[in-house]
Q: What sequence folds into this?
């Protein structure tokens, strides 16, 4: 799930670090650090961690360690294996020095990923605090639920593009979960008409993953990840594997898509006279830019089909032909 931030927060200049004044965050008095990830939790109060099992008896709850392990594996998969640019290496997030992950009681949802660099002025930091990206996770979820990698993928999306249409944002984040989950996600036939495109894709959130999974499968039917030594054998505290299999269709396609969307959102910013990274939240999420995003989808589909020499079926050709119809449909 992507966070909705106040308009003022969206207007912070890229590279600046907004101070987050939130009394709740100061209650997270424990921190577990694994590489750039700082897992913050508490054993007291309303946000107390419900499950404090500690199988390896190292003083850190298994849930906390398992979240950190999944995030490190996710970063290695997305960046080292798939070649995506890590969020903290993107110009938008140049000042971030960590990703702070809060395990807390959430009123709704399983997780939330914030799209700006912030300074939470936490007690474990120096007096001036530190600039960080932020992820919130439900503290009572099963230890090995894939929400952490889903929310981490949102950080990758935010690093590449300002577009936050939910059919793109949540649909591709749901695809990313299968980097860890067994098999591949459910597919549905590609839309071949404008009404089908609106109904099956533009009006969807997580359900749009059917289109993304279909494209990924068609463009990358083999769909096998080449994992570096040791990564495939990484385990959680209880010994279970983090990566369930090496199958993930469409990694190169998703990379091409994210790389295509950056230049397209720059065009939108220039056309509207907006700062490159200073869009208002409602503009980031606006359906007015569905067509712009879909241009990136078609661009990435064509480039990956040519690169991989994927079979050009009638279904794929009808999908690509939507470009002419979408152009005519734009007011």
A:
């Amino acid at each position: 799930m992507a966070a909705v931030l106040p308009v003022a927060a969206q207007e912070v200049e890229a590279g600046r670090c907004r101070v987050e004044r939130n009394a709740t965050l100061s209650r997270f008095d424990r921190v577990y650090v694994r590489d750039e990830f700082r897992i913050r939790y508490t054993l007291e109060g309303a946000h107390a961690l419900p499950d404090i099992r500690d199988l390896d008896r190292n003083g850190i709850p298994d849930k906390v360690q398992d979240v950190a392990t999944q995030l490190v594996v996710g970063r290695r998969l997305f960046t080292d294996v798939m070649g995506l640019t890590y969020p903290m290496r993107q110009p938008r997030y140049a000042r971030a020095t960590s990703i702070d992950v809060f395990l807390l009681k959430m009123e709704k949802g399983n997780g939330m990923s914030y799209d700006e660099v912030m300074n939470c002025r936490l007690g474990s930091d120096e007096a001036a605090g530190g600039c960080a990206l932020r992820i919130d996770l439900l503290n009572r979820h099963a230890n090995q639920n894939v929400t952490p990698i889903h929310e981490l993928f949102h950080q990758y999306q935010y690093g590449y593009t300002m577009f936050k249409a939910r059919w793109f944002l949540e649909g591709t984040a749901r695809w990313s979960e299968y980097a860890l989950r067994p098999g591949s996600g459910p597919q549905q036939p590609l839309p071949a008409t404008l009404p089908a495109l609106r109904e099956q894709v533009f009006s969807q959130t997580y359900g749009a993953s059917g289109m993304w999974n279909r494209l990924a499968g068609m463009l990358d039917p083999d769909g096998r990840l080449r994992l570096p030594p040791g990564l495939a054998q990484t385990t959680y505290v209880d010994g279970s594997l983090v990566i369930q299999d090496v199958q993930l269709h469409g990694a190169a396609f998703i990379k091409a898509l994210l790389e295509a969307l950056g230049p397209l959102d720059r065009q939108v910013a220039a056309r509207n006279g907006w700062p490159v990274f200073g869009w208002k939240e409602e503009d980031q999420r606006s359906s007015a830019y569905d067509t712009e995003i879909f241009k990136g989808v078609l661009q990435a589909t064509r480039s990956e089909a040519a690169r991989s020499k994927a079979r050009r079926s009638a279904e794929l050709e009808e999908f690509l032909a939507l470009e002419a119809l979408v152009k005519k449909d734009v007011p």
Remarks:
- Residues 82 and 251 are 6 Å apart (CA to CA).
- The longest strand covers residues 131-138.
